[in-house]
Amino acid sequence: MLREMKTFNLGWLLFAAVLLISALPFSQASRSKQHKVKTGVFRSPQFVLGPGSVANKLFSNIDFPRGHIALKSFDAEVVDESGNPIPLYDTYLHHWLVLKFYVRKGLENQDISKLNNSDYISGRNSGICQDGALDQFFGLGSETRRTKTRIPDPYGIEIGNPTKIPSGFVETWGLNVHAIDTRGVEDRTGCTECRCNLYNVTKEEDGTPLSPNYDGGLSCCYDGTKCRLKDGFIGIERNLYLQYTVKWIDMNSLIVPVNIYIFDVSDTWKKSRNSTGINSEHNCQVEYQVESCRATGSANDKCIDAKSVSLEMPFGGYLVYGVAHQHAGGTGSALYGKDGRSLCSSIPIYGTGEEAGNENGYIVGMSTCYPKPGTKKISKGETLILESNYSSIKQHTGVMGLFYILVAETLA
User: How far does the signal peptide extend, from start to end residue (predicted)?
Assistant: First the structure.
């Protein structure tokens, strides 16, 4: 009798479980299927570097996931032809940027830099810098191997929405890779900071003379330049690639889209009034210079260069993810609300070894923020404060103080 009761109870429990599953709403029962994460591993076109040389390439119409999807992460690193990771002390990855363009149908396979302005439209992020500055969807530098780019569920960066693609155009993707080969150079740190005297550069890429006060930065390490080598050093050229891993899911009603905002601590913005009200005019410089505290006589300040800027948010929402971008010498960056509340702080991770991803003295990662949903709200028009701190024991040229955040207009 006891055995029969146990059999009856087990059968009833199984029957009840089937009824419960069948009674679930379709969206819940099929959530795992609809949110199946897809992964693609791609490579950029080849770029060639010899000792001391610089590659700053914009590759058009790169391999990228297609369709109406939600991006979940984008990770990258420099590899050789065999797929071996290249350490930063051999090839310094200054930055990589992923950019969206709408290109006129039939021209999508052409080099975008050679197209007429009327044949393509920038599909930039939500701001807030001026057009042509910090337009990317994703972008990192030397910290790329150990910085999390995962976008938490149920959020995603929506792309490929046919209702948002201009008529007669197709959505394409570009990739900017800026890499510096430092094998055999006279001053490895100086080369990665693009000091003009080491590159023997006095003019910008377009031929414009450099300012006498410009000691180093992007204007001195453009594509094809070369950093000074040690006497007698000889090395071979190498074929290299940016290998990138993209994760995504098919877009559906359960996914909450996020907007991308990139802030720049060197932004010299101001309010302006026009016929439709007050607007903000931004002038993001992208990079700046940190002077030595010894030269400025400010050693009593513990040799920290603290730079900050107040920025007005054009839209509101909830912070989903945040991360800063700094160069060697950086000690951390933070974003605050108008009432001084902390929205996100991001601290650099410095390498301590020799293997790729842990190179001694290099920033190999940045800490990231994943706030509890709904806890970090930003109001439309709110003034945020961005801070970027660098060690100023010695001068640093061409440094950056960027902050990348993802904001959802509504909660899940």
Answer: 1-29
* Tokens at 351, concatenated: 């390498």
- Locus of tokens 């197209």: 115
User: Which of 161, 142, 186, 201 lies closest to 399 in space, CA to CA?
Assistant: 142
Ramachandran quadrant class, 223 (left: phi over 0; alpha: psi -120 to 50; beta: rest)? beta
Both tokens of residue 26? 């379709």
Tokens for 308? 């900050």
Structure tokens at 5: 């009761």
Q: How many Cβ atoms sit within 10 Å of the Cβ of residue 5?
A: 9
The answer to whether the pTM exceeds 0.85 is: yes
First-to-last C-alpha distance (Å) of the chain: 51
The values of phi and psi at residue 7, to 5°, are -65, -40
How many whole angstroms from its chain centre is CA 38?
21
The domain limits of the chain are 38-270+282-408
Q: Work out the pLDDT band at 270, boundaries 50, 70, 90.
A: confident
Q: How many CA atoms lie within 13 A of 3 on its CB side?
A: 0
Q: What is the DSSP letter of 221?
A: S
Range with the poorest average pLDDT among 238-252, 253-267, 292-306: 292-306
Name the residue with tokens 């029962």: 29
> Shortest CA distance to 48 belongs to which of 243, 242, 239?
239
**Could you tell me if 359 and 351 are in contact, meaning their C-beta atoms sit under 8 angstroms apart?**
yes
The position carrying tokens 């990739």 is 175
Tokens of 260: 């991308």
pLDDT digit string, tens, across residues 131-172 = 999 999 999 999 999 999 999 999 999 999 999 999 999 999
